[in-house]
Design brief:
Number of helices: 10
Shape: elongated
Distance between the termini: 200 Å
Strand order of the largest sheet: 3-2-5
Largest sheet: 3 strands, antiparallel
Radius of gyration: 62 Å
Length: about 375
């Protein structure tokens, strides 16, 4: 029977009373009738409805278990280490790879332990000599202990930032302005590093400080020009010092070479003098027996040999005159220079005459010396 047929009021699920007044259905009545039908089907004969209900509940529970198991798989990357919490308490640490955890029981916090992290700090600070400088520094660090990094402090990044600020302000506050701005920058950087390590040591954050970079340090803008001039003067000073050191390194080997050469020359002169002295001694030792046998003859021979050696190295000629007491001096070198401007023939004739005259004078001198030696020899014999 159709719902809208006359007399079919009992068959109308919306329970319209017919007639022209047909409004929207009542939702409470609809759900009540629907639950009533499910209840009737479950209480039927043979328990077929009860079995179907249990099977549906089992399927739902099995599906939930599968979803729970699948949701427990997770992956730890190569650069990370996993910190496992069981019911909110630290349980263990896992290595990289595909892992499984019981969902709603364990919680995994991945921590990057290979990447190098940066932490910067900057600000205006008061130095020991009551000057204001603006300093910028950057710290590089790496996590080495995931457990300490996660649980040592509430916010490790904020703790590192505050520790870095404290270390910089302490070191700058115990340094002069010139040390921070000029030649003491490296010392300041090292002191900040050491101070930061001493601050972080009691907290044991599980980090390792790799480097500390002094990015910038400058004076206030009002005195920046004067400090730039001072820095330029210090750079010029260092440049002059390096040039002087280079010049010293260039001169020193040369001076050492000269010293060595002078030492070698002195040593050679010493050896030559010693050898000459030894030769003279040997020659004297050879002449001594001859002198003891014939002293006068040996003395004259030594004298003649010495004079021959002396006169062989000079251009001056001395002529002894028998008739007078004066000795004639012939400066042949001056005469030759004076005659160089005369004609070649006259010069040749003059030179020939001078040579003849000098030969005559030399012969006379030789005769006089021979007579003198003979007289001395006779006197010595007598």
């Amino acid at each position: 029977m159709a719902w809208n047929e006359p007399g079919g009021k009992n068959n109308d699920p919306w329970k319209n009373r017919g007639g022209r007044d047909q409004g929207p259905p009542d939702l409470d009545d609809v759900f009540k009738n629907l639950f009533g039908k499910f209840g009737k089907s479950g209480g039927g004969k043979g328990g077929s409805g009860s079995n179907m209900g249990k099977l549906g509940i089992g399927l739902i529970i099995g599906l939930l278990v599968v979803i729970w198991f699948v949701s427990g798989f997770y992956t730890i990357r190569e650069a990370e280490r996993g910190v496992v919490l069981r019911f909110g308490q630290y349980y263990k640490q896992v290595e990289p790879g595909l892992r499984w955890k019981p969902t709603f029981i364990d919680k995994v916090i991945p921590v990057d332990v290979q990447s190098i992290r940066d932490q910067a700090s900057s600000g205006s600070m008061l130095t020991e000599d009551e000057n204001v400088v603006r300093v910028q520094m950057e710290m590089q660090y790496r996590v080495v202990d995931p457990y300490r990094w996660t649980f040592a402090v509430t916010s490790p990044e904020m703790s590192l930032s505050q520790a870095l600020d404290s270390a910089i302000r302490y070191v700058v506050g115990h340094s002069s302005m010139d040390d921070v701005l000029t030649d003491g920058r490296e010392v300041t950087r090292q002191r900040v590093w050491e101070e930061l390590q001493s601050i972080l040591e009691p907290y044991n954050l599980g980090v390792a400080i790799l480097d500390m970079n002094f990015k910038d340090a400058r004076p206030p803008e009002e005195v920046k020009d004067a400090f730039d001039d001072a820095i330029s003067a210090q750079e010029d000073e260092q440049r002059f010092i390096r040039e002087a050191e280079a010049y010293a390194r260039e001169i020193e080997p040369r001076a050492r070479g000269q010293v060595n050469r002078m030492n070698e020359e002195a040593q050679a002169y010493k050896e030559r003098v010693i050898l000459e002295a030894q030769g003279e001694v040997a020659r004297f030792a050879e002449l001594l027996p001859q002198y003891e046998k014939a002293p006068e003859v040996t003395r004259d021979r030594i004298y003649l040999e010495t004079m021959e050696e002396v006169y062989s190295r000079t251009s001056k000629i001395l002529v002894d005159n028998e008739k007078g007491s004066s000795m004639m001096y012939l400066p042949l070198d001056k005469i030759m220079e004076r005659q160089s401007n005369i004609s070649p023939q006259r010069s040749r004739n003059s030179l020939q005459g001078l040579q003849n005259q000098s030969t005559i004078d030399r012969d006379q001198s030789s005769q006089n010396e021979s007579g003198l030696r003979e007289s001395r020899f006779r006197n010595g014999r007598e």
